[in-house]
């Protein structure tokens, strides 16, 4: 085996499989808790909060048009009060630097729930929690990304080796002619 390949191949494997798995493994965890308002907390799967992330809230009657836009605070929190006249699933999307997730939060209308005989039942004060978590990369995805990285290093090395051969052949032919 050529000396160059003995150096290039270990560096290619180390650079792709050694450090890339921990650097690219960003998932997103979100939790929403209903109190008097809706509180959304967004963080990466490493536990780091998604500070200053873009937040878009969609109302149930028009899920294509943003109802509210904003950003999370430094702890990844965002609080809003949904319009109680629009019961249904409110969608909250949080995005930052290519990472993000959506959580659907069921909101009841402003009418108190009733029992079978029509009398109003006091609402329970138990907070409901909706959560969403995006998946990390699967092992197959990691292997494919690593193989693509190795193939990129090998292709780059072959490209530069081809350039050296053609230059040396050109010099050799010039020295023979001149």
UniProtKB/TrEMBL annotation:
- Would you indicate the residue range of the signal peptide? 1-25
Which superkingdom, per the lineage?
Bacteria
**Membrane-spanning residues where?**
142-161
Annotated keywords: Membrane, Signal, Transmembrane, Transmembrane helix
* InterPro entries from the UniProt entry: Invasin/intimin_cell_adhesion (IPR008964)
The protein depicted here goes by the name Carboxypeptidase regulatory-like domain-containing protein
